[in-house]
Design goal:
By secondary structure, this protein is α+β, with helices and mostly antiparallel strands. The protein is built from three helices and two strands, in the order E-E-H-H-H.
C-alpha cells in the first residue's frame, strides 16, 4: 500500500494474489513453487498439527523439552545442528 495507494481496499484476487487459505511459507526452489504449512511441519515431526501457544514458559523446565529432543536428536539431551537427523536439517 505504501508504493501504490490506489491498491488500498482491493481484494487479493484483484491484486493478482492467491486467495488466503492458511498461514504458509511460500518459496520457489529451482522454479518449483513450494508451500510449507503447519500441517507439513507436523507431519515431518510426526506430531498432530493442533495445540495452543503458551508464552512465558521457562525453557529449562518445559515439559516439551524431552519430546522435542527425542524427536529431533533421538536423545533426551539438547543437541547441536550437527546432531540433528537429516530430515530435520532440511526442515
Amino acid at each position: 500500500m505504501l508504493n501504490g495507494p490506489t491498491l488500498e481496499g482491493k481484494t487479493r484476487e484483484e491484486l493478482g494474489l492467491k486467495p488466503f487459505t492458511c498461514t504458509e511459507i511460500r518459496s520457489s526452489i529451482m522454479g518449483i513453487p513450494v508451500s510449507i504449512t503447519k500441517e507439513v511441519i507436523a507431519r515431518v515431526c510426526r506430531r498432530k498439527a493442533e495445540g495452543s501457544y503458551e508464552e512465558n514458559l521457562d525453557n529449562k523446565t518445559s515439559p516439551w523439552n524431552k519430546v522435542v529432543n527425542m524427536t529431533m536428536f533421538n536423545s533426551t539431551k539438547k543437541g547441536k545442528y550437527c546432531d540433528l537427523k537429516m530430515q530435520y536439517k532440511l526442515l
